[in-house]
Batch of 3 targets.
Target 1
Amino acid sequence: MKTADVPYAADAEVSLTYDELQVLRMQYEKELAQSHVTIQTKFNYAWGLVKSPIREHQLEGVQLLADIYRSEPKRRRECLYYLALGHYKMGNYDQAKGFNSQLLEREPTNLQALSLDNLIDTAVKREGYIGMAIAGGAAAVGTLLLAGLIRRAARK
């Protein structure tokens, strides 16, 4: 399925405003101070953090979602997409692919997950091309150095 066939995984690009994230943070911290954070509050805050363009926020969001995923079996399905999204945004494509694949196993027609799958695949290919370009450049430099050394040795 081509990317154009599914709706764009808008969550990959759209962040909450500072004020919107602050509302979620204040609710989470209020409940934390009372020693009882509801799963919904924790999920909402994690969701907002994962959507952030700031890596530290994304990491904290993924950690909170992972806690929910481990401790609340009934909430695992709704955590999978945002765990995949968080890892994608941080460049952890293997983990992103793993969580997204779990979601697609459960919901093979989930359009957001299909779109995110395309984004992950594209990022992996792009990263591979960059790696190949770097390796090719290093090989070219190595070849030039080796040729220079051979010429120098041949002159002596």
Target 2
Amino acid sequence: MASGMEAVAMDCEMVGVGPFQQSALARCSLVDVNGDVLYDKFIRPEGEISNYRTHVSGITPQHMEGATPFAVARLEILRLLSGKLVVGHDLKHDFDALKESMSGYNIYDTATDRLLWHEANLSSCRRVSLRVLSERLLGWRIQNSWSGHSSVEDARAAMKLYKISQQIRAR
């Protein structure tokens, strides 16, 4: 974890495209260390949307009207991530949706921070959700809306958890 580097938290929402409903980027949100929104756009994926996954993604057909094309959004997002510490939860899926390798980025992932899990009394778990970490360590109830997740809310939660992780390591 590269502390001292400017951090930006990312969360993406996906829809299914094509006959096999492959995951494709439909919204991306980036927030700074204070939780202020740097980027939040609906993105028109490549391919025909076959499942909006609205109950999880919050994405509806109306969001796709006037959405930014994937190729344009991808460049905008990667430009904002360049040279930053990228914070998030289970970021592999977000980078896959961006069709970008994580290897060229400095990453902090709440899904793999065992010290954070320990602080939340979740050491014995094999996987821990952002929702549970947020509830245990922040007292926040996220991802509980019938209309799907909010990528801004999830990015803010990941950033706040990163800051808690930094405080634990400074003890």
Target 3
Amino acid sequence: MALVLNNRNFYFVPLFVALAVICASKAVEVIFQQNYKVTWGKHHVFFMDNGREVQLSIDKNSGAGFKSKLDYASGFFQMRIKIPNKDSRGIVTAFYLTSKVFEHMGGNHDEIDFEFLGNNGGPYTLQTNVFANDEGGREQRHSLWFDPTIDFHTYGILWNQHQIVFYVDQTPIRVFKNMWKIGVSFPSHQMHITVSIWNGEPWASNGKRIDWKEAPFMAQFQGFNIHGCQSQKHNIYACYSPHLWWNDKKHWELNRQQQKAYEDVRKKHLLYDYCSDRGELHRECQIN
């Protein structure tokens, strides 16, 4: 039997469902090394609090990044993040899901992005994007209603076969529905979690060059638990099981309270939506 965490209750799922579910109680913090590994810039990665906090830094020579050890086909993925202070224009801090690219399959790359754009004081801009089958160009930008350089805030991605929801401190800021029936691609490949800090000039800084005299720029990360499903023998459909809490019917759409919070954020903090100037290229824009 496989044990699955469903809200606060435990349910048993038969092994023939072929699930490898990685779950951790919110009350129990796991260390970085349990679920993640450093992928580049190892000399710019620093561990604190016995592996419960990680700092990535970037200077003129290198940035840094890490990724989850496993790939997942559905789940709720979140992390607590504090981005660099100082004049960090041009520095990008990223937290995202991305699939492996196999050339013999023609790419078919999927990706779900949070990208924090550095600034010289507030307000700070958070960019999100969704790629499906190599089709991106779905950027949205929000101004954050707090200073993300002062303290940690929680950023999350809910991904099931009905919708993708981006959360900031439990507030939904973006929803991308599964509209495959009308020909809109939706992420369907297993993806791993990736975190990085990198040089995003000039696009991330409105053409301004990074002031490297301010380096190193440092971002901190906490919360290395993962609530996700890894399919066995590439049986990705097993990860759509309703026994997994993030696939439960109540997570197929926002509830009334979430919908109101989502609409408030769009009204007050949405800076840019790809549907405003590229809507003719994306079928979902013609419905929303």
